[in-house]
Specification:
- It is a single chain.
- The protein is built from nine helices and 38 strands.
- Residues 1-23 and 28-88 have low confidence and may be disordered.
- Strand 24 (323-327) and strand 25 (333-337) form a beta hairpin.
- By secondary structure, the chain is an alpha+beta fold.
């Protein structure tokens, strides 16, 4: 068995261009710990007999090679790949692809071919966008989804290269000794490097300037940046430890008990880290504080790991089993596919959940977008209704957002968008990004992520919208069928699905704070008058039309008599010190309301107690938020207060435009935000 490994390494090395590549390939294939490697710390405490865990012998690290088939051809391990397990396999021009990095922004992928000495940029459909030469033996790369650039570890050349999205060289720096892994921080464009034979970790700025370096490592093999805080996890292979470093290089955690930690991937959503422990044929998930959450031991040289931040799941390249494995965040197996030959690297795209694979000894890149056939193979699951009252204008342009809720049977990420239908409409596809418009969040606050999708409003069948519900059906990738109802509110016909204030208008309708006209229209561009404003505000303070009390027997304002349609609302607003009228004693109900005036009315309405008394302790900032509402403006304090509580934000040019008249769609937004209406 050992001779077989060495023979394979030697054959590969003979084909290599330089002695350094031969050394690199031998190291990557065998990677036995040196005799001087430090004894690892015990794993999670002493063993059952009380003694600390020790490093296993080299023979225990190497699994038996696959048996020889008739004719001498090796028998590949693992299960056969399902017919639909790969969207495509791109083999042209690859000799030893060893690293892939998916770009979630556009669904593309960068791939490094260490033997062909180039990196390739593939589009989401597998077509080649560019091929970059001028490298010696690239072994790792990491794409920055913010600008599309890519960092490359050119191991045999002892250098790191930063390429733009179009392949232009932004920076190239040497002084490394087999840089084996890179990981980019998308927040600032910086890059962390595992400098393997220099036994150190280096942090580079986006322009290549060195920010930090640390040398308390022994043959570090993998790095993974947490974009949430800029920290970095390190697989310190020959120290048999996993190390967590702060953004400035300060050591936060060092966790022992591994044999040969080979690959790390951090989840920025919760700070947890997935680790492949190649020497013990297992995958381990650590919490941010180093606590072991769980482990799985059914692998054979797990080589690479990639976490999906959207759902916490993880993809694993199981090298000697020739399989790719998809694990849920709790470690349960979602999918397993064979037919690979020593897959070296995996990279997940969290936008659509697909996985790119460097299928090294099949000399190709594979893309796995789905699991299973999508056919209904298990009983129907009722997913239950969503409580977010998604607004919909059936038959009108624009996208309608709705949720396929997670259930006890499956995770939201397992839903196959291609099978989902909402009232007859299929899930929309973003023509620019080429991916499904999906989002994961806990819509109904049950502790499980829900899959929010977008549907073309013009495709929604109004006949399928009954009693405030829309039929929602679909399948999971593994074949579980589901059906249920999503709560919807039919929007007024003159408020299209892509209207900027649609959710606020519908939230007001659902809360009985906003009313349309008798003809069913809302007239979003209509200007709000002072009597209409009083109606909006009074309903908001009282909690709906039914709670607005009857006005007094005698009117406060002569131009708003007891017979006026908004009499009760105006009087209620007066009683709560929200409106005061003009100096001549009139209210002037037909006058249009400006944005400066509206800020006063809304600010007085949402404080406790209502009126100026509730604002008595508020201290406006010394520096104005808007150029056209200076500190000496008559409604300055009210505008600043609404800005501070996120009711208003002004226009994109930094102005508030206090003299502009308020339209009915703007009024709905004031009310929805001010009274915190659920949409």
């Amino acid at each position: 068995m050992w001779k077989h490994i060495c023979a394979q390494v030697s054959a590969t090395a003979r084909r290599a261009a330089t002695p350094r590549i031969a050394l690199l390939l031998a190291t990557m294939a065998v990677a036995a710990p040196p005799s001087h490697a430090a004894t690892p710390r015990p794993e999670w405490g002493p063993s059952e007999g009380g003694a600390a865990a020790s490093r296993p012998a080299l023979a225990d690290l190497v699994k038996p090679w696959e048996p020889e088939a008739p004719g001498g051809a090796p028998v590949r391990g693992g299960r056969p790949a399902p017919d639909d397990s790969r969207e495509f396999q791109q083999s042209e021009g690859f000799l030893r692809p060893c690293s892939v990095s998916a770009n979630r922004a556009d669904g593309s992928c960068w791939a490094a071919d260490m033997e062909s000495a180039h990196v390739v940029h593939l589009a989401a459909d597998g077509s080649e966008l560019l091929r970059k030469d001028g490298l010696l033996s690239p072994t790792s790369l990491s794409v920055n989804a913010t600008d599309g650039s890519c960092w490359v570890a050119d191991a045999a050349a002892g250098q790191v290269v930063h390429l733009s999205e179009d392949g232009a060289e932004l920076w190239r720096g040497g002084g490394f000794n087999v840089p084996i892994s890179v990981s980019v921080d998308v927040t600032d464009g910086s890059c962390w490097v595992a400098d393997h034979y220099n036994n150190r970790i280096v942090h580079l700025a986006a322009d290549g300037a060195e920010l930090w370096r640390g040398s308390e490592f022994q043959r570090p093999w993998s790095v993974s940046v947490n974009a949430a805080d800029g920290s970095c996890w390190v697989a310190d292979t020959y120290n048999a430890e996993v190390v967590h470093l702060a953004a400035d290089g300060v050591e936060l955690l060092r966790r022992g008990g591994f044999s040969m930690p080979w690959s790390v991937s951090v989840n920025p959503s919760d700070g947890s880290c997935w680790v492949t422990d190649r020497g013990r044929n297992r995958v381990v998930r650590l919490a941010e504080d180093g606590t072991k959450l769980w482990q799985r031991d059914d692998f054979s040289w797990p080589w690479s790991v990639s976490v999906n931040a959207a759902d916490g799941s993880c993809w694993v390249a199981d090298y000697l089993n020739d399989e790719i494995v998809h694990l849920a965040d709790d470690g349960t197996e979602v999918w397993r596919g064979g037919g690979f030959h020593h897959p070296w690297s995996v990279s997940v795209n969290p936008t659509d959940g697909s996985c790119w694979v460097a299928d090294t000894y099949n000399h190709q890149i594979a893309h796995i977008p789905i699991h299973g056939s999508g056919e209904c193979a298990t009983p129907v699951v009722d997913i239950g209704p969503d409580s977010s009252h998604n607004p919909v204008n059936p038959g009108a342009p624009g996208l309608v957002r709705a949720a396929a809720l997670g259930s006890l049977t499956f995770y939201a990420v397992q839903v196959d968008p291609a099978t989902v239908r909402l009232a007859g409409a299929s899930v929309a596809v973003d023509p620019g990004g080429g991916s499904y418009l999906v989002e994961e969040r806990d819509v109904n606050e049950d502790g499980r992520d829900d899959l929010v999708m977008a549907f073309p409003g013009e495709d929604i069948d109004k006949e399928e919208l009954a009693d405030g519900y829309a039929a929602l059906t679909g399948n999971t990738y593994s074949g579980t069928c589901f059906e249920g109802e999503d709560v919807v509110t039919i929007a007024p016909p003159d408020v299209p699905n892509d209207h900027w204030a649609l959710h606020a208008i519908v939230a007001g309708l659902n809360s009985d704070l906003v009313k349309g006209y008798p003809d069913g229209l809302y007239r979003p561009n209509g200007v709000v008058t002072r009597d209409q404003m009083a109606v909006y505000i009074a309903r908001g303070v009282a909690g709906g039309e039914a709670h607005v009390p009857a006005g007094p027997a005698e009117a406060v304002f002569p131009d708003v008599p007891t017979t006026h349609w908004a009499y009760d609302h105006v009087e209620y607003a007066v009683a709560n010190d929200i409106v005061q009228g003009y100096g001549d004693g009139s209210y002037q109900p037909d006058l249009s309301v400006t944005r400066g005036q509206m800020a006063v009315f809304v600010a007085r309405a949402i404080v406790d107690p209502t009126g100026e008394e509730g604002l008595a302790d508020y201290r406006a900032p010394a520096v104005a938020s808007y150029r056209d509402v200076p500190a000496d403006y008559w409604s300055y304090r009210h505008v600043e207060y609404l800005t501070e509580v996120d009711v208003v934000s002004g226009y994109g040019d930094g102005l508030y435009r206090p003299t502009n008249f308020v339209t009915r769609d703007q009024m709905a937004v004031y009310v929805a935000r001010g009274f915190e209406l659920a949409n």
